[in-house]
Design goal:
Length: 294
């Protein structure tokens, strides 16, 4: 099996992408997801974090990306399972699974992303929660994002390997006990998420959600990830690299730069995106260009 490296973004429905990633005035029939699928290799479904998906919505997305056979989805696990303190009912598990089954059955679902907050530290109760999630969603490929460094232990990584659950390597603002950048693979699915490094707003209580992700990576900051990605790819069969610094299309810019660095090709990008972020110019051209860089 040929290894697949998929560069993508977290979510695709953002009003602040208009005039940067998407046309300011969208033509009739314009599908934002189709544009993302033409530029990148994957998208992380954000809507599933807030509520279970409708199977019909999933089928619609599959129709939109049909012209792009190598395009894949990952999907965030519903926050009911990762952030709520009380346990959940079997009916809620079935409801969430049903929304993703069309994508799974079509062979387009890379994994479910179980994203936990920094406050989710290693403890007996939290171990129990993780084990219940692993049991309830065992038919799906899973990856786990843990932002607190207390989970960076061999015993936990061994448990992930034993259960074929992937470890999410993250780039985030580093505070006390924050999970640092890593290069770990514990299942066939490797995963990396880049959140940005906006220290000023990451834990700011009154910050708008977009403020935490208003960060543009420099070329050097992204280049630091290439050796890490190489190691993760070496120890997995499929690697997802997802940019979550979504404000005003900064994640799209970062994902394209990383993909260009990896492939050593100059990629296509929206003209307005290149104008907004000139650091894209060595890596992207407007239109369909894919030229060798080296």
């Amino acid at each position: 099996m040929k290894k697949a490296i998929r560069f993508g973004v977290a979510g695709w429905h953002y009003p602040d992408w208009a005039g940067i990633v998407y046309p300011e005035k969208k033509p009739r029939g314009f599908e934002p997801l189709a544009l993302i699928a033409s530029l990148l290799d994957a998208v992380e479904v954000n809507a599933s974090f807030y509520s279970p998906l409708s199977p019909n919505a999933a089928r619609k997305w599959l129709r939109i990306v049909q012209p792009f056979p190598d395009f894949r989805f990952s999907a965030k696990l519903w926050q009911r399972f990762t952030h709520a303190r009380e346990s959940w009912a079997d009916q809620e598990v079935r409801l969430f699974r049903r929304g993703l089954e069309p994508i799974l059955d079509a062979g387009r679902l890379g994994c479910i992303l179980c994203q936990f907050p920094w406050s989710f530290r290693q403890s007996e109760d939290n171990w129990t929660r993780l084990k219940k999630i692993a049991h309830d969603f065992k038919k799906f490929p899973l990856v786990v994002e843990l932002r607190h460094q207390s989970w960076q232990k061999d015993s936990f990584l061994d448990w992930l390997r034993e259960n074929s659950i992937g470890f999410v390597n993250i780039d985030q603002p580093l505070f006390h006990d924050s999970m640092p950048p890593t290069e770990i693979a514990t299942s066939q699915v490797g995963y990396a998420r880049l959140h940005g490094r906006n220290y000023q707003t990451w834990f700011k209580k009154d910050a708008e959600s977009w403020e935490r992700y208003d960060y543009l990576y420099s070329e050097q900051e992204l280049a630091e990830w290439i050796p890490r990605l190489e190691k993760i790819a070496l120890n997995s069969e499929e690697l997802f690299v997802i940019a979550n610094n979504h404000f005003q299309g900064k994640g799209v810019a970062g994902a394209l730069m990383l993909k260009s660095m990896w492939s050593r090709k100059k990629l296509a990008a929206p003209k307005a995106l290149i104008q907004k972020y000139p650091l894209l110019k060595p890596f992207c051209e407007p239109g369909e260009a894919q030229k060798e860089l080296f």
